[in-house]
Design a protein that fits this description.
Blueprint: H1 8-16, E1 27-30, H2 33-42, E2 50-53, E3 56-59, E4 65-67, E5 73-76, E6 84-87, E7 96-98, E8 104-111, E9 118-121, E10 128-129, E11 132-139, E12 144-149, E13 158-159, E14 162-164, E15 167-169, H3 172-182, E16 188-193, E17 199-201, E18 204-206, E19 217-222, E20 225-226, E21 229-231, E22 234-236, E23 240-244, E24 251-252, E25 255-257, E26 260-263, E27 274-277, E28 279-280, E29 283-285, E30 288-291, E31 297-302, E32 309-312, E33 315-316, E34 319-323, E35 328-331, E36 342-344, E37 349-352, E38 394-395, E39 410-411
C-alpha cells in the first residue's frame, strides 16, 4: 500500500485535537462614550471591527468617532434606532468621520452635531468605497446631515455608497441654532461632491426650511457627481427637494424616480421640488410632487448643460419647465393634481385615494420602471400609473429590512373607495 493506516489511538488523538483557525474579528459591546471612542480607535491596531452600542443616550461632549480602517461596522446592539442616541449637543463637530471603505453605520440616532453628523471623505491615499448608512435617525444637524466629499486636492473620491431607511429631520430647535450660527439656512439632508454611483432610497427627509433664508436640498448631488439613483424617498417641507447639479457645477447621468415630495404653506422661502442644473443625461420619472407654497415650478431643468434629459410620468400640481436653455424629452406628465387625489398632503402622504382618469393606467413604459414608492410591482391594474404610487387595494407599511415593527398591510376601505 502507498500509505499506512492510522491506528485507532492516533485517529482519536487527531479528532480531539483543536483545529488551528486563523483569528477572526469578533464583536465588541460598548456602553460608555469612553468605551465607544476606544473601540473605534482600537480598530486601527487590530481591534474588533463590529462595534455594538448598548441602549442608552451618549453625550459626546466634543468627542467624535473617526473610522480610518476598512470593514468597520457600528450599530446598536438592540437593532432599535431609537434606543441608542449619540448626542453631540453642538459641541461635537462631526459625530462620525468615515475615511475608509466598506463601513456600515446603522440602527441608531444621531443628533446635534455642530457640522455634519456623518461626514464621508476620501483621503490622499485612495478612494472610499461602499459606505452603508442604514436605519439612522438624524436630528438637527448644524449643517448637512450626511456630507460626502473628495479629498482636498480632488484626486480621490467617495463612490458606490448607499443611504437607506433613514429619517433625517430639522426641528424648530435645530432651525433656530442653524440660523443663529450661520446667519443663513446652511443646512440640508444628503449633500455630495464628485461622488459616483450612490443610491439614496426609502428615506424620509423633512423640515429643512427657514423663514429668513433658503435651505439646502433634501438630497443634493453635484460638483461632477454621477450616476446617482434617488428613489422611493418621502421629502416633506424642505425648501428644495432633490437636486442634480447646481449652477455650472454638473451632474452626469442618474435617476430620480418614485419619490413623494411635499411642501406645505409658505414659510418665507421656497423653491423647486426637483431641480436639474447642468445635469446631463438624467432620467426623472414617476415622481409625485405637491406644493402649497407660491413657487410656480415642481420640476426645473436649467442651463444649456442640462440636456439629454428624460422627464416622464411625473404627477405634480405645479409646472414642469425649462429655464435658461435646458432641454429634455417630456412625456405623460400631469401637472394639474389637486389635494383630493391624495391620502394626506399635509403630512406628505401622496398615495392615490382612488383611480383617476388620465393618471391611473396612463403612464408610458420606461426601462427600469418595475415598482413604485412602496416597492409594489407595476402595473397593478390594466396599465402603468403616473406618479410615485401605483394605485392598488393594498398599501404596504414601509419597514426597514430586519426590523420587527409588527407592521401589517393597510387595506383599502372598500365601502368608501378610499385608503385609510
Amino acid at each position: 500500500m502507498c500509505c499506512s493506516l492510522l491506528s485507532r489511538s492516533s485517529l482519536l488523538l487527531l479528532l480531539l485535537t483543536p483545529l488551528s483557525v486563523s483569528p477572526a474579528h469578533a464583536d465588541v459591546v460598548v456602553s460608555s462614550v469612553a468605551g465607544l471612542v476606544s473601540a473605534v480607535n482600537n480598530t486601527q491596531s487590530g481591534g474588533d471591527r463590529t462595534i455594538l452600542i448598548a441602549d442608552g443616550t451618549y453625550f459626546l461632549n466634543g468627542e467624535y468617532l473617526r473610522i480610518v480602517v476598512d470593514n468597520v461596522t457600528v450599530r446598536s446592539q438592540s437593532g432599535n434606532r431609537g434606543n441608542v442616541i449619540l448626542d453631540g449637543n453642538y459641541q461635537t463637530t462631526e459625530i462620525f468621520q468615515i475615511v475608509a471603505s466598506n463601513v456600515t453605520i446603522e440602527n441608531m440616532t444621531l443628533k446635534r452635531a455642530y457640522d455634519h453628523p456623518i461626514h464621508v471623505m476620501a483621503s490622499s491615499s485612495g478612494n472610499v468605497e461602499n459606505t452603508l448608512i442604514s436605519n439612522v435617525h438624524i436630528i438637527d444637524p448644524g449643517q448637512q446631515a450626511i456630507k460626502i466629499n473628495p479629498n482636498a486636492n480632488r484626486t480621490h473620491f467617495v463612490n458606490n455608497g448607499r443611504v437607506a431607511w433613514c429619517l433625517i429631520e430639522l426641528t424648530a430647535a435645530g432651525r433656530a441654532f442653524v440660523w443663529d450660527r450661520n446667519g443663513s439656512c446652511y443646512t440640508g439632508g444628503v449633500d455630495a461632491h464628485q461622488a459616483a454611483n450612490w443610491v439614496v432610497e426609502d428615506n424620509e427627509i423633512r423640515g429643512f426650511w427657514c423663514s429668513n433664508g433658503l435651505s439646502e436640498h433634501g438630497v443634493h448631488f453635484w460638483s461632477d457627481s454621477s450616476n446617482t439613483v434617488v428613489q422611493r424617498n418621502q421629502i416633506v417641507d424642505c425648501d428644495r427637494g432633490i437636486g442634480f447639479g447646481l449652477g455650472s457645477s454638473a451632474h452626469w447621468g442618474g435617476i430620480v424616480r418614485n419619490n413623494m415630495i411635499t411642501h406645505g404653506p409658505n414659510h418665507g422661502q421656497s423653491d423647486v421640488g426637483i431641480g436639474l442644473e447642468s445635469a446631463d443625461g438624467a432620467q426623472v420619472y414617476n415622481n409625485t410632487i405637491y406644493h402649497e407654497h407660491p413657487y410656480p415650478n415642481a420640476i426645473e431643468y436649467r442651463f444649456a448643460d442640462s440636456r439629454n434629459l428624460t422627464i416622464v410620468n411625473n404627477l405634480t400640481n405645479r409646472a414642469i419647465t425649462s429655464r435658461e436653455g435646458g432641454t429634455a424629452l417630456l412625456a405623460n406628465n400631469v401637472s394639474s393634481a389637486v389635494s383630493s387625489w391624495f391620502t394626506d398632503t399635509l403630512n406628505g402622504d401622496l398615495h392615490l385615494r382612488s383611480e383617476i382618469i388620465g393618471v391611473t393606467g396612463a403612464a408610458g413604459t420606461v426601462a427600469g420602471l418595475v415598482d413604485d414608492f412602496d416597492q409594489q410591482s407595476r402595473p397593478q391594474g390594466a396599465g402603468l400609473d403616473i406618479g410615485a404610487d401605483e394605485y392598488s387595494l393594498i398599501v404596504p407599511v414601509k419597514v426597514p429590512p430586519g426590523q420587527n415593527s409588527g407592521a401589517k398591510l393597510s387595506w383599502l376601505l372598500l365601502l368608501t373607495g378610499e385608503k385609510p
